[in-house]
Amino acid sequence: MTLLHYAPATTPFLDIRYQDDDIVVVNKASGLLSVPGKALEHRDSVWTRLSYACPDIRVVHRLDMATSGLLVFAHNKTAQAALQRQFERRSVGKRYVAKVAGHLPATRGAIELPMRCDWPNRPRQMVDLWEGRHALTFYQVIGHDKLGDIVYLEPYTGRSHQLRVHMQALGTPIRGDKFYADPAAFAAAERLLLHAESLAFDHPTTQQRLHFTCPAEF
């Protein structure tokens, strides 16, 4: 993965929304990696920053560098395994908000288009009806502005760049997307206008259902 001019924001250094003996929920800034990259200059990440104070911190899931929003990390192996099982079983509630260029074909719907890596152009992904892996996204239009729709996105599957590719496939790329937007849609925003605003899961120890929300800055 090539990251040019990687200089993530340091204010705030970390935006922790919840913490206990088992988990940490963080609001990740756009432009900050979820976990370190391979190159030395790409070591800064949410995980790296958390590990300064919590050396036992463990990864559960990730967000694209350009995407902002809620991430959960685990403090121990047992909590990590319990949370990862929930992601595998698709019992975790995830909702994103995005601003797209143009208007979606309906006020709500489902996009079921299989995907795979676009190997010559990785990390880009692509729709492939023959060799792609199953990918399903639900959407709901919640508003409009002069450039297009504001939409909730709920991924049923968790493919890399799934929401970005599915929005592009409908002809409504997410604004500010350097990989999938046309030049006008890319120039319409200074960052990718995609934010993980809602995350719900069962606490790995108490089994209580937890629901976190964090509105998008945009």
UniProtKB/TrEMBL annotation:
SUPFAM superfamilies this protein is in?
Pseudouridine synthase
Family the entry assigns: Belongs to the pseudouridine synthase RluA family.
> How is this protein named in the record?
Dual-specificity RNA pseudouridine synthase RluA
Keywords, comma-separated and alphabetical: Isomerase, rRNA processing, tRNA processing
Q: Which InterPro entries match?
A: PsdUridine_synth_cat_dom_sf (IPR020103), PsdUridine_synth_RluA-like_CS (IPR006224), PsdUridine_synth_RsuA/RluA (IPR006145), RluA_PseudoU_synthase (IPR050188)
Functional note: Dual specificity enzyme that catalyzes the synthesis of pseudouridine from uracil-746 in 23S ribosomal RNA and from uracil-32 in the anticodon stem and loop of transfer RNAs.
An example Pfam family from this entry, by short name, is: PseudoU_synth_2
Q: Per its record, what are the GO molecular function terms? A: 23S rRNA pseudouridine(746) synthase activity; RNA binding; tRNA pseudouridine(32) synthase activity
Cross-referenced Gene3D superfamilies: Pseudouridine synthase
Q: What class of enzyme is it?
A: isomerase
Note the CDD domains from the entry.
PseudoU_synth_RluA_like (cd02869)
Q: Does the keyword Oxidoreductase apply?
A: no
Source organism: Pseudidiomarina indica
EC annotation from Swiss-Prot or TrEMBL: 5.4.99.28, 5.4.99.29
Report which superkingdom the organism of origin falls in: Bacteria
- Reaction(s) this enzyme catalyzes, per UniProt: uridine(32) in tRNA = pseudouridine(32) in tRNA; uridine(746) in 23S rRNA = pseudouridine(746) in 23S rRNA
Q: Name one GO biological process term.
A: enzyme-directed rRNA pseudouridine synthesis
Provide the Pseudouridine synthase RsuA/RluA-like domain boundaries.
22-169
